[in-house]
Every structure is written in C-alpha cells, then in structure tokens.
Amino acid sequence: MRPPRSRLATVVSVLAVTMLAGCGLVSSSGTFHHARLPGGEQPLDGAKLVVTSKSFTEGVLLGKITATYLSAAGADVKDLTGAPGSASSRQAQLNGDADILWEYTGTGWVNYHNETETIADPKELWQRVHDIEKKDHNLEWLPPSNFNDTYAFAASTPTAEHLKVKSLSDVAALPVADRTFCVDDEFFSRSDGFIPMLKKYGIPYNDPNGVPSGNVTRMDAGVIYPATAKSSPCNFGMVYTTDGRVKNLNLAVLDDDKKFFLPYSGTAVVRGAVIDRYPELRTLLGTISERLTDQLMRELNGRVDIDGQDPSDVAYDWLKSEKLVE
Questions:
Q1: CA pair distance 252, 236, nearest whole angstrom
Q2: Structure pTM?
C-alpha cells in the first residue's frame, strides 16, 4: 500500500515553496519559533542539524515540532521542511543534505523496499524496516510513535451508534442494505485496497450477499468526509486515521479488527553518522514521539487544514502546552 500522504490538504500558503537544487535541498520557508528548554539546558549545544519534511500538513507539522524542540535544546537548526513529494526529502537524507526526517513504517516497507508482505503488528513492521534501513542506508529509525496514519473506514457518530458498529466485522454482520460505502478510485482499484478488504471480512464485492456494486459510490477523497458525516450516499467512508476532518466532522473510526491495513506508524529517522555524533537525539526525539497519538495528530492537522493556522505556530503552541519549551 502506498503511504496515504497525498490526500492531506497542502500546507497553507504562508509556507513558501521548497525545491531541490543542484547542491541539495534548499528552502525559503525555514521558519520556526525559537524557544528554550525549561531550565535552560542545552544538551545539543554546538550541534548543527538539518531538519526536513514532506510537503503535506502532517509532515510539515512534525518537522516544525522537531526543528523548534532541537533548537531549544541548543542545536543550530536549518529548517528545510516542506519538500515536495516523498522523493525530495528522502533523497536529501540519503545524500547527506538533511539529517532528520519523519517517515512512516508502511512507506519504508512498501515504497522504499518494495515489500509485499502485510505485517499487521506495528512493532514487528518497525523492526523489519529499522533493520533494512540500518543495513542498506545507515539510517536509524527510532522507536515508532503512538500514531498510525493509515487507511480506515468511518461512519458518522449517530450512524455508528444507530447501527451498533464499532469494527469492520460489525459492518460485515449488518444487513446488505446497510453496507454502503464511499471510496476513491485509487483505493477501489488497488490490489491491496477495497475489494481485497471486503474479501478479508467475508462480504465480497458485487455479490448479492456481500456488497453489491450499487452499494459502492466512488468519489474524490476530499468529498468522502462530508458524505460520510451526512451518511449520504453511504454509511461508511474511506478516511485516513489522523486527518483533521475526522475530529472536525465527529466521525467514528471503525476498528480494523482483522488487521487488513498495513501500519503507517510515524517514526523519526536520523542519519547514522549524526546520531552517533549526537546520541542525545535518541532521548530528545523520543520525548516528542512518545506523546504523539492519532487523536493528537487529528487535532494538530485540523488546526492547520481547517482553522488555517500556521504550522510553525501550531508546533510551538503544542510544545509549550506540553511544557517541553518555554
């Protein structure tokens, strides 16, 4: 499965364009709030670090949080957040032009190493990716956070309560007429997408006793959220688990209880030479990572995508609220 990245709203226009130049990644958007750690400690005093990110909202937010926090810890941080597409930030790190990048375990497994096995356990998948990346690229994938930005299905909260569904197995137990879905074209067509998912849950597509073709509406991913909130034309819509619209529209995300979807756990990735030189990064980045959850990322993403706030402000405000900076 590809990383479910491209569907998130692009970062608000206050972010300037980031691009690849001949000497590597350059950015005119390298702005973040300067702060300090409580007590004024500077465990990274003298360190020079380059933080990059992909261009979608969540990636930029993670990059801004990281740049702000490591700067507060005393590092001289160059902010190259907002690299267009996955390739730019990834290539910059492989080239040594960037030191720290937040990645997703599913991305590493499928997109970077072309693996097809579905590993449902997030920790096992992280370990497999960690070992390959360390061996092949000397990249250190630090322990994963507690958020997983992957595909899911959701219903409006009133519909979920009315139908008494909390999981996809509950959906499979509903009468055929209630099994109505909204999906986008890509997910519908994927070899690891909608049709295989229905098969996994015992409700095959285009089967009168499963999910008849008339029960499925294909639409743009962005339209699915309001359609699901209205329960029209579908009871169940394809969503991404950390999208801010899940919280904003009060959608109930259903449990993938048969573990069909590959985990996409957010993980800070550091060049091996850099973490060897600054081992304090393990503790500092772990302090961020351990606080990140699906619910939190929905909230932070929503503050940018829905409320129109600047990612730098959202990152700083969150770090302050956690008493990680002052």
A1: 10
A2: 0.88
